[in-house]
Amino acid sequence: MLICEAGDSLSRFFHTTRKVGKRMAASPRAPHAPQPDSPAKQRKLERRSLIKKDLKRNKFIYLLALPIIAYYGIFHYGPMYGLLMAFKDFSIADGIWGSRWIGFDHFENFFNSYYFGRLIRNTILINIYELLFAFPAPILLALLLNEIRGRIFKRTVQTISYLPHFISIVVVVGMMFDFLARDGLINQLLGFFGIDSIPFMSEPGWFRTLFVGSGIWQGLGWGSIIYLAAIATIDPTLYEAAKMDGAGRFKQVLHITIPGIMPTIVIMFILNMGSMMSVGSEKVLLMYSPLTYETADVISTFVYRRGVLDSDYGFTTAVGLFNSIVSFILLVASNTISKRVSEHKLW
Amino acid sequence: MKTTIGEKCFVAVNTLFMLLLCFVTLYPFIYVFFASLSNPAALASHRGLLLLPLDLNMNAYKAVFDNPMITTGYRNTIFYVVCGTAINLLLTALGAYVLSRRNLYFKNMLMLLIVITMFFGGGLIPTYLLINKLGMLNSVWALLIPGAISTFNMIIMRTGFQAVPISLEESARMDGANDLVILFRIIIPLSMPVIAVMILWYAVGHWNSYFSALIYLRDRELFPLQLVLREILITNSTDSMMTDAGAQDRIAIAETIKYATIIVSTLPILLLYPFLQKYFVKGVLIGAIKE
Lengths: 347, 291
Known about the structure:
The complex is a heterodimer.
Chain A (H helix, E strand, L loop, with lengths): L1 H25 L12 H19 L1 H24 L5 E2 L5 H4 L1 E2 L3 H8 L1 H21 L1 H11 L4 H12 L6 H11 L5 H8 L11 H29 L3 H9 L4 H26 L6 H7 L5 H4 L2 H11 L3 H30 L5
Helix pairs in contact in A: 5-17, 6-11, 7-11, 8-11, 9-14, 11-13, 13-17, 16-17
Chain B lengths: L4 H32 L3 H6 L13 H8 L1 H33 L6 H13 L4 H10 L7 H4 L6 H12 L3 H9 L4 H12 L1 H17 L2 H6 L8 H9 L13 H42 L3
């Protein structure tokens, strides 16, 4: 997984800095130095000359890096600086720095507000449903696709199943509104079986099912690619050996294929945990209406309404920050647990 | 090897399941396509699945193409896709090149600072206020610049660049080539598969995105197609398109106009998709290879 590479770079970074430190501490001092510097000072000097040499040799590359550094500085670290607003009584006229500090007032307001329980419940429930249904679905599809022997048939199914991934979310939700309307296609079909028409899109009880269900429809095929790739790397001799031992197809899947793709599954699971708190607000925003807020309103849509539409900037920044911190903790926690339990990890 | 009855059953059920999956995936598009070509009145009284257009009729498409909102939206979207993807590619390639350099003292630190942004960020409101402060609100720049680099894509591209043999680069350097020449004349031409994948991913992303336009744009003249679609499909405003229809016909034709808009906005992707599919998949697999 690409992300593991990113994770690798995290651990590599910490690792190399530590190593460099050790090596430099251990390096023998020049014996004929007139006034031996303290080790710390010498380390500093050594490092400075290293940097100087590097800057000289790679000056053109650093020049090329400038736009990239500027981009990340402005558009990624700039908003992080803006997080200060969460602790301030922010007003546009005073700016971020000039506004009055108010400590954790925004957070307290949020935790005590009427919406807090509802937002947390909706956000977490949608994610739990996704974990239960949308997460295993592509794995299952990959396992089933792998059992298909006809190559052309397999390719066709794959091609068709990837397609919805490229359709815009606006079109997908638009089609849902149309097909699931009171007199829409689904209700017409239900009518043939004598079932009364159901107001799917305005019924709070249906929201989670529709959200997760349409997510599976759109992402099933695309999600299976990564598992199919993992299956393709399994050593074929393992299957030969299993056949010799008399294992049937089901046993082969259970004892070879699934263990073979386990690392991929675990990595995907950890990533999923990391996004536990960030339900795709772009889709909820299109799907929900005041009628379904009760089950549909999640943290990110609340931030959009109160922040962008009602200009309550300080408060919603605090809500957003709370959300990011919980996500980050979940990501780190699931990685740590997985490291203990299974040795598979992101970093 | 002999197949058991159980295995035969499994193969049959599995095949059936795959056929069902194909049907469920494709039929909504087929229905929309047939419905868009149907006579509004006939469609309104029809129940159940459509197997062919009812009473072939192109009026919905005429209404769609006569609508200035949709044509402007189309033009705007093409502009955002072309310019946005160009900016994306330039900056992503630059970043990937820098990160693919060996022996760069600050590389690990740079990488760390970039990777952090994949897991933690300022969030919606601080970003919104920043864009506001930079004066990009209600301008095309708000859709082009803030998302100029996808960190994920940049790391994929870096992995692609690292696969270029270093000997080629060294001999070019002997001949006096500088980094820009090496990037544009050697590394990029030799990494065309990755570049192709990036073009496709970024372009599809721009084509389909609506959220940044929703928060940053006020001026309707700048709206991309997806935002216009949102109004037509979800907030239900097809009225402007039917100036010369009676109240009864309005409701009926509104339906077919919706279907026609879906087709018109999705057609480019649907037509290109079969040819580009292998590149999309390749991209996922490049990303899946661990260094």
